Amino acid sequence: MYEFEIERPSSVADAVKALGQEDAQPLSGGQTLIPTLKARLAMPSVLVSLTGIKELQGVEMRDGALWIGGGTTHATVMHDAAESYPALAKLAARIGDPAVRNRGTIGGSLANNDPSACYPAAALASGATIETDRREIAADDYFQGMFTTALEEGEIVTGVRFPIPQAAHYEKFIQPASRFPLVAAYVAQFSDGVRVAITGASNEGVFRWTEAEAALSERFDADALDGLTLDGGNMIGDLHGSGAYRAHLCGVMTRRAVQAIA
Amino acid sequence: MPKDFEPSSGIGASSKRREDIRFLTGSGRYTDDINLRRQTHVFFLRSDVAHGRLSGVDTSAAADMPGVLKIFTGADFAEIGGMPCGWQITDKHGQPMQEPKHPVLAHEKVRHVGEPIAAVVAETLAQARDAAEAIVVDIDELPAVVNMKEAVKDDAPKVHDDLTSNLCYDWGFVEENKEAVNKAFDDAAHVTTLELVNNRLVANPMEPRVAIGEYDRSAGDYTLYTTSQNPHVIRLLMGAFVLGIPEHKLRVVAPDVGGGFGTKIFHYQEEAFCTFAAKAVGRPVKWTSSRSEAFMSDAHGRDHVTKIELALDAKNNFTALRTDTYANMGAYLSTFAPSVPTWLHGTLMAGNYKTPLIYVNVKAVFTNTVPVDAYRGAGRPEATYQLERLIDKAAHELKVDPIKLRRQNFVTEFPYATPVAVEYDTGDYNATMDKLEEIADHAGFEARRRESEAKGKLRGFGVNCYIEACGIAPSNLVGQLGARAGLYESATVRVNATGGLVVMTGSHSHGQGHETSFAQVVADMIGIDENMVEIVHGDTARTPMGMGTYGSRSLAVGGSAMVRATEKIIAKAKKIASHLLEASEGDIELKDGAFSVAGTDKSVAWGDVTLAAYVPHNYPLEEIEPGLEETAFYDPSNFTYPAGAYACEVELDPETGHVTVERFTAADDFGNVVNPMIVTGQVHGGLAQGIGQALLENCVYDEDGQLLSASYMDYAMPRASDLPFYDVDHSCQTPCTHNPLGVKGCGEAGAIGSPPAVVNAVLDAMRSGGKDIGHIDMPVSPARVWEAMHG
After folding, report:
1. A262: pLDDT confidence band, cut at 50, 70 and 90?
2. Is-cis flag, bond preceding B100, omega within 30?
3. Number of structural domains in chain B
4. Which residues in chain B touch residue A173, judged by CB atoms under 8 angstroms apart?
């Protein structure tokens, strides 16, 4: 690591102010940022820790949706969302290992938008709303490509509002080394249609598989996916699998998610 | 033969590992736990290109950075010896291998990503690292050679300009048999051919390497604290060949070491650097490897590309075997690298079978990659994998049962001289196969397959045998084969006045549990409580010159030295007892910690005899010296030959290609067993590494020599959830005939014996799904399986 200052504000307002300093960077659970700093791949002058801000914490029902504070850890979601949104709680329960789950936060995951992260799939498939210190952003507008989001410089994810589907399931196929998704599908069934989000597969990051959504909205059955394929051309190809393999897995994971619900 | 019941102490008891109390409570003392007064820290600036000419290393700006004490470059080591290689291979033309210079810090050229170019010694690690970023390195990049078959072409870029090519050696074994082998192939009723890759691995011990050099200016003494499996070997190699320090001025300490797996056998540049720099800087110099550095500086393992052929007669008897292997050496020769694909590999090609004619060809090749050397099993897993995959392929081509084909060709009479220069002293391969079929419930497999198929999964059963040569090794033999070291082992047994013992062994424990099992042996010989015996290892100032721990040698060789020293102790103690009991020495018997006169009730306790040795008031001083301390060096007359049969049952998801190991069964013959629990644990660990190689682990370079699997994000280590509960048995015991304990060694078996069973099982599963592809390379990743199923 290079040397940096650290600030620990106790309110979002103070955090935003601190982030106005030159080369300041927010620090939430640090599951990506700390290894990046240790590898000397980032050189912030000030780290603004968000973990001491009470208003970023919590899992609760608000106006029929599940609100999760941006600074809430995966472990907390795993426990506190188990009754209100079990599919999301199960997703949280399978992120990383206990150490990761006890440090990593939902806001950090969404702000980073790793193309292989789990939470973006849940947010996109659930049609969640991302709340920040200055506005609300629909998930459909929020994810803008690999490690890219609609967030502005210094903007903090304060919370996420998840509409609760009638049923949902997250089916993950892990990359054997990192245990991130190689491909994972989140299927959410609402009264007005089905949403399907895929993570791990695309060079563009998380995306909605609209053909699958249309077919499943028509008839919610794994067989409805027959004949639907994705193009491997723009899929990630690496040591762990080609684009064609990932495209194939998108179908398998989506099908299995539907079977788990049906 | 196995004992009918397990004793509660001594040889054969599952005594709990006494060292685990400190390991499990965080009170172990590892090298990184050592911090010396006025200690400094070194950071190594490492090459980020695989191959290039070093045209300049400008340290002037860095030297002025805060906290910097001294910066070293290759030029500082130009007058000092390079890293030595401990084994010279003679090629098939009778010529010595090509042996390149191996500098402590890169000089004139860099040859792999991770090679140290400069070393910054500073007050803190952060300061050293800051300064390293200010060093300006000019490298004229050269094309890298990564692929071995490309590397040996005439127009390939040369890794070492002063060598004639990238070929280290072209080894033929046994060269005199080559024509006879070829003729047997001409006459064969059936020939099975297989081309395969033994994937490159990174050892990944939990504890990364650490070195601390210290220099005492007043005495002129050096001390190196290091994460080593063999501190005396490091003292000899570094002292004599690199830094020119005589042994009496150099102490090497390897305290608790958190896993070695072979990669901590070798002498590394960082050790030599810290020792050298401690004097140059005038203060202790410490280096702790980061995990990222470990990936690109610890010697890697395996990395063979092989074509192997088996000739059979019309009755399916094996008549000849020939192999053609390319073995990657990496950019430099690591300490024992040349021996691995030759003497530790070629001599095992007979396996458990009486194939009369064998010819092994190995081309060792330099590439722009991290040096490759011994990793758990070292050469023997490569031999086992080829042979046992080939036999399985032959069985399917001939439509015979793979177990039956193996049994038909087993060696059944011992001693058995193989056509590849070794003599198996004892074994019973049908016994381990019988045991395997029983505990693997082979008969119940079809029912389990149907259960899997009902879930939409394919199920496969794979089996293999293995044999290894352990207890390395007879010194006179390995000397003829090119070893530049002896391979005996040593022990000093010091009996204290009140009867407790300290055993100072040349073996080194880095997870094996020697402190427990070695104590069991000595306590059993005397008939005293195990807790009266303390095992000391890992410090050249405290232990006699020993060769360390690798090659499953510690009990077979180090334990034998300990037995010999204890026998000397007992012989002398009997003399003392005979004096105290006023009886003739020949009538003295030692049992349960007491000396008695045969046929009488006269006896004297162990503690009375040991006290007399140190308080010799009533003592035969005219006949024997006071004191009770003996040393023995044991040099084995042969290798030991552990062997066994393994079975793997996998479930394969045809939609994703994901393979899970549902059952794994190991039936081993380790000869006599001192601590069954520790042996079981050793097999468990070996299996984890073997299954890891088969399914998960893969060290991959791109064509420019960049390491793609350089962290745990891309290098897949096996985890508990990847592994089943194993069924491990070692009740088949044919004791070794030539060491006093009748033991064979168990540390590497699991890693040697498991990969072929896994791959054989995967191929069996695929065949049951209608896809007979003949072979699939490791690691059998989901993507590879899926591509094979749908290709």
Report:
1. confident
2. no
3. 3
4. 656, 658, 782
